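Priority: medium. Attachment 1 of 2:
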């Protein structure tokens, strides 16, 4: 590796680059998980949900191109090192989606809003990061492991859809992944609304490309560096806690990919909000709203750890590598968010 930069700092720089792209996508392209679900359920528009489809497809194509070129060792990808626990994907996804609805943002969305001056998002980021660490290594860690046991993945049967289909069809995993990615991306253009939205298509593509940068960059450091660097891509649950810990203990700790990614989203969102003229300081004036957002953030942090990723971690990064749990978790997040939105909007009132 270069003598002027450590492996950890290099992965943080890779995370920073991808994070900036994701932050710009959020502010300039309105790339948002909860916003996409709200539009589909209550505004009659599938545009932003289709943006997710394009981002997933692009990430899937790029990631499997890396695998096919031998630049990404599938067995080292963080999502494929543990066996899949379906119950964890469902329960964690439902909790995350419900918490996201209550707080009004996912972790990624809160970072993007914070970059635009929204101090309410700062509370969401801090509470979610703390809650994630409570579930990872704090008081709830043993209970989480007991309820949702973690087992190493079988190296001969990785929990990847592309690997499984390759064995069944006699094709290579990269070929399967690229084909699925292409089909998914093209399917998103079946909507006239999507075909007439070049800006949204561009930023969805950029979001997918950011995930590819994460996988490819960390895999390169893993193969060429001297440290035990995990092969990973963007997610925003544990990295929020990692960032807070680094800010408090930087003299005795090292940077990592997640910290760089968090900083990148903040920077990209800040630049995007200035470009659009949308930057302004905002605060919460209603204590009841703040209480709801803090509760939602805590539920999100717990749900993301149980599900092994958030809306970006499972909805993009894990999807890119076609991890078994990605589509299940993503659907559970949507269901949990729909439940939470229904509660907030109508309070489950019986229709007359």
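Attachment 2 of 2:
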């Amino acid at each position: 590796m270069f003598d002027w930069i450590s492996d950890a700092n290099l992965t943080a720089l890779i995370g920073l680059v991808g994070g900036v792209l994701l932050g710009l996508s959020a502010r300039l392209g309105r790339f948002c998980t909860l916003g996409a679900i709200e539009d589909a359920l209550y505004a009659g528009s599938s545009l932003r949900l289709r943006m997710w489809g394009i981002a997933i497809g692009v990430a899937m194509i790029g990631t499997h191109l890396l695998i096919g070129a031998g630049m990404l060792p599938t067995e080292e990808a963080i999502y494929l090192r543990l066996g899949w626990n379906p119950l964890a994907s469902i329960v964690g996804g439902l909790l995350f989606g419900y918490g996201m609805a209550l707080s009004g943002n996912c972790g990624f969305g809160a970072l993007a809003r914070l970059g635009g001056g929204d101090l309410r998002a700062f509370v969401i980021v801090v509470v979610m990061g703390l809650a994630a660490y409570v579930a990872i290594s704090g008081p709830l860690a043993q209970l989480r492991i007991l309820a949702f046991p973690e087992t190493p993945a079988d190296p001969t049967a990785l929990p990847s859809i592309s690997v499984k289909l390759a064995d069944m069809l006699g094709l290579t995993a990269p070929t399967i992944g690229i084909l699925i990615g292409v089909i998914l991306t093209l399917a998103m253009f079946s909507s006239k609304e999507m075909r007439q939205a070049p800006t949204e298509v561009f930023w969805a593509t950029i979001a997918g490309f950011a995930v590819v940068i994460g996988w490819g960059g960390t895999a390169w450091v893993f193969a060429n560096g001297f440290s035990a660097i995990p092969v990973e891509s963007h997610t925003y649950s544990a990295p929020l806690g990692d960032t807070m810990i680094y800010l408090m203990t930087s003299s005795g700790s090292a940077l990592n990919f997640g910290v760089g990614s968090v900083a990148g989203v903040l920077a990209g969102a800040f630049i995007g909000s200035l470009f659009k003229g949308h930057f302004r300081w905002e605060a919460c004036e209603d204590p009841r709203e703040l209480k709801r957002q803090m509760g939602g953030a805590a539920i999100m942090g717990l749900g993301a750890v149980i599900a092994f990723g958030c809306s970006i971690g499972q909805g993009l990064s894990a999807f890119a590598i076609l991890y078994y749990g990605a589509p299940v978790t993503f659907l559970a997040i949507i269901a949990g968010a729909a439940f939470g939105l229904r509660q907030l909007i109508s309070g489950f009132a019986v229709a007359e």
